C-alpha cells in the first residue's frame, strides 16, 4: 500500500493531518505533503484520512504484486 495525493483536488483543509499526523503535513495556506508514502505502521489512520478528506484528494493504492 502507498498513499497518493491529487494536488489539483487538495484545498488544504488539513483533515488528513488531524487523522494521521505522522503521515501528513499541511502548512498554513498550503497543500498536503505526504511525510511517509508507505502507511503500513499507521494503516488505520491512513484509511481514516482518506475516508474523511472533504475533497477526495487522497487515495490508498495497493501496489502489491498480483499472481
UniProtKB/TrEMBL annotation:
The keyword Iron applies. Pfam families: Fer4_15 (PF13459). InterPro entries: Fe-S_cluster_ET (IPR051269). Coiled coil: none annotated. Its cofactor is [3Fe-4S] cluster. Gene3D superfamilies: 3.30.70.20. The keyword Ribonucleoprotein does not apply. SUPFAM superfamilies: 4Fe-4S ferredoxins (SSF54862). Keywords: 3Fe-4S, Electron transport, Iron, Iron-sulfur, Metal-binding, Transport. GO terms for molecular function: 3 iron, 4 sulfur cluster binding; metal ion binding. PANTHER family: FERREDOXIN. This is Ferredoxin. The lineage of its organism: Bacteria, Bacillati, Actinomycetota, Actinomycetes, Mycobacteriales.
Amino acid at each position: 500500500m502507498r498513499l497518493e495525493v491529487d494536488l489539483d483536488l487538495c484545498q488544504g483543509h488539513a483533515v488528513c493531518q488531524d487523522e494521521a499526523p505522522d503521515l501528513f503535513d499541511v502548512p498554513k495556506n498550503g497543500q498536503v505533503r505526504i511525510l511517509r508514502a508507505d502507511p503500513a505502521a499507521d494503516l488505520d489512520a491512513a484509511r481514516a484520512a482518506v475516508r474523511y478528506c472533504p475533497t477526495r484528494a487522497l487515495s490508498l493504492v495497493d501496489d502489491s504484486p498480483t499472481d
